Task: inverse folding
């Protein structure tokens, strides 16, 4: 694939720290207008990767191209088109939100009116003249996003933007991020250790585990990998299980429930007919979809959070 | 470069550093008001020695360290380095801007002390013509002699996340000043002693490192400044954030 097609592309990106490849041969590819969910457990190498994308750390090996240009050679022109929020929002506590934005505005050289624009995007206009040290974490995160948006970037890099927020705050940031490609016309790279967080907004996902990119594709392909199974509630499940096996169905009986893997509508109808013919009483036919979360856990082999 | 300095300016505009810059002049005000005893024919020079002794020996080197640490503290505390360096600016611009602001703060400190000196002189009724040349040489010299120390402290403050560590180093290395300034061999090469050697009027003192010519001192100051600044700059350019 030609690198012109991608807003961001890495090839064989590797970072070696303390004798270990914390990022190993990672090939990311992000297209224009996407919301790319960059997922992985804590310590999988997400932040290290993002630091290299922004030129904050040097790769041991491999290359980073943004807008088709090499970050090592054209860092400043590239960064002019990138807004970022890495790990946690950066701010100067003794300054107000407006002053914090002014610090950045002077570096970017954008018109003063942008400050009011971004403040209204993140709905901080009313609080803009208060010192930031009195802000809640959610407000600081929103200010961080406002800062990232200040230069009208074409690519927005948000590293764990909902980290440490309460559920209401998470919801708020999520809605905000979701609205950005439409209202601000940006491509977004958002990292998270929680799949559920990006599931609802990402168009594509990349999953990194122990420094390796183990999956990268559309979120729909991932959903298709989520195998669904049909659970049958019947009067005599063990007998029913034997019956289904004898007819060649992929049935399973674990002494609690009778399930059939990957059954389409026609198969389900045929199974029910069989059961009824053999005088089984059918109480329930339920579909059980494995959550995406579980697929991630299987992929990354971690418990609890990704 | 200018946009970088203008951006830095907002950060310190309403910061505690301004209170610190007033500490030494206020103490000098007290010393000058109560401690001045006219002796001979050079009242302004005497006043200058009186006020600048403590300032140049202790406060100026200490403040160089405190200012440097404060300028970096904002960046260490809440990820400011990361945010700044992910912007379309070069690391060289960032480092130079920090140094310019640091020297600016030291210049403000010097200016405040000069104002205090003039006020006290006036209140004591020192009438003879103000020796502008001597005063200017003393204050500007003291300021310029801070260059190596400021470069060194900025280097240390950038390198250490901790606010206290570079300050502790600075305090420990400032105290020996009392002895070092008297040493002809070591005095001029000791960055913490250089401001005092440059600032005290030459006429009054003729011992220790004060023997040295201004030219020698200037060469040492300039040389060590270049070395320290280049080291800090190179370090910062390659520092992963």
Result:
């Amino acid at each position: 694939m030609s690198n012109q097609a991608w807003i961001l592309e890495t090839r064989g990106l590797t970072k070696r720290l303390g004798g270990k490849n914390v990022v190993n041969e990672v090939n990311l590819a992000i297209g224009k207008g996407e919301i790319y969910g960059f997922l992985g457990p804590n310590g999988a190498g997400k932040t290290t990767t993002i630091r290299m994308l922004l030129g904050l750390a040097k790769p041991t090996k491999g290359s980073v191209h943004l807008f088709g240009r090499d970050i090592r050679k054209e860092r400043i022109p590239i960064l002019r088109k990138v807004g970022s929020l890495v790990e946690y929002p950066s701010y100067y506590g003794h300054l107000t939100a407006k002053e914090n934005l002014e610090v950045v505005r002077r570096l970017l050289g954008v018109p003063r009116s942008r400050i009011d624009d971004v403040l209204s995007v993140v709905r901080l206009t009313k609080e803009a003249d208060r010192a930031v040290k009195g802000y809640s974490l959610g407000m600081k995160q929103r200010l961080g996003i406002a800062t990232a948006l200040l230069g009208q970037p074409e690519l927005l890099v948000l590293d764990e933007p909902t980290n440490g927020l309460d559920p209401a705050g998470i919801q708020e940031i999520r809605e905000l991020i979701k609205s950005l490609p439409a209202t601000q016309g940006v491509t977004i790279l958002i990292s998270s250790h929680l799949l559920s967080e990006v599931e609802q907004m990402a168009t594509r996902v990349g999953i990194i585990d122990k420094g390796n990119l183990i999956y990268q594709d559309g979120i729909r392909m991932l959903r298709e990998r989520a195998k669904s199974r049909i659970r049958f509630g019947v009067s005599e499940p063990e007998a029913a299980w034997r019956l289904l096996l004898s007819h060649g169905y992929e049935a399973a009986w674990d002494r609690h429930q009778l399930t059939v893997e990957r059954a389409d509508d026609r198969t389900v109808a045929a199974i029910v007919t069989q059961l009824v013919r053999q005088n089984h009483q059918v109480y329930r036919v339920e579909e059980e979809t494995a959550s995406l979360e579980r697929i991630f856990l299987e992929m990354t082999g971690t418990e609890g959070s990704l | 470069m200018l946009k970088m300095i203008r951006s830095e300016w907002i950060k310190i505009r309403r910061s505690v550093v301004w209170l610190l810059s007033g500490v030494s002049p206020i103490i000098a005000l007290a010393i000058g008001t109560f401690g001045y005893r006219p002796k001979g024919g050079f009242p302004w020079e005497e006043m200058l020695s009186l006020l600048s002794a403590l300032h140049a020996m202790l406060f100026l080197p200490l403040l160089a360290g405190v200012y440097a640490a404060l300028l970096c503290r904002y960046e260490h505390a809440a990820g400011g380095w990361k945010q700044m360096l992910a912007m379309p600016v070069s690391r060289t611009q960032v480092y130079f801007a920090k140094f310019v602001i640091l020297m600016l703060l030291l210049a403000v400190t010097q200016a405040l002390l000069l104002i205090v000196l003039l006020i006290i002189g006036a209140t004591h009724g020192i009438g003879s013509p103000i020796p502008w040349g001597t005063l200017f040489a003393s204050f500007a010299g003291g300021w310029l002699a801070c260059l190596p120390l400021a470069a060194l402290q900025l280097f240390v403050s950038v390198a250490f996340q901790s606010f206290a560590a570079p300050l502790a180093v600075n305090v420990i290395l400032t105290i020996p000043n009392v002895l070092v300034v008297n040493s002809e061999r070591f005095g001029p090469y000791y960055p913490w002693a250089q401001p005092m050697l440059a600032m005290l009027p030459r006429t009054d003192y003729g011992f220790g490192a004060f023997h040295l010519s201004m030219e020698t001192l200037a060469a040492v100051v300039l040389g060590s400044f270049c070395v320290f600044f280049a080291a800090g700059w190179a370090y910062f350019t390659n520092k992963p954030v």
About this structure: The interface with chain B takes residues 51, 54-58, 76-77, 79-80, 82, 84, 86-95, 99, 102-104, 106-109, 147, 151 of chain A (CB under 8 Å). The domain at 227-289 of chain A is CATH 3.30.70 (Alpha-Beta Plaits). Chain A has a mean pLDDT of 86. The longest strand of chain A covers residues 6-17.
